[in-house]
Design goal:
This protein is mainly alpha-helical. It is 67% helix and 0% strand.
């Protein structure tokens, strides 16, 4: 899904609007909104701005996705070989199973 699709869907849902409701407010066909949100169409900047404005948002006011994410663990995993990643995942799964068993014992 493209950035325009995520932005529009986020703004529309935050505004509590259906695609039809947004279409009526922004004067853009509902089919166009559906195509943008499905990632089948990249709108012109002016069209996207108009749609976002219909939701009470603007291009300059949207939060960037991924800000505040600690990417150190992602980089660490990408530096591993596939077999190392698999071994780590198995070990973490075992730890999680052990933790659940311990919590279940405590709860009893």
């Amino acid at each position: 899904m493209g950035m325009a699709a995520r932005m529009l869907r986020h703004a529309r849902r935050s505004a509590g609007l259906t695609q039809r409701g947004l279409a009526a407010r922004a004067g853009v066909p509902q089919e166009t909104i559906a195509r943008v949100e499905a990632g089948r169409s990249d709108p012109r900047v002016t069209t996207l701005d108009r749609l976002l404005e219909g939701c009470g948002f603007g291009l300059e006011h949207l939060p960037r996705l991924g800000i505040g994410i600690d990417r150190a663990q992602i980089r660490e995993r990408l530096a591993m070989s596939p077999s190392e990643r698999l071994a780590r995942a198995i070990a973490e799964d075992r730890n999680m199973l052990e933790l659940r068993a311990n919590l279940k014992r405590i709860a009893e």
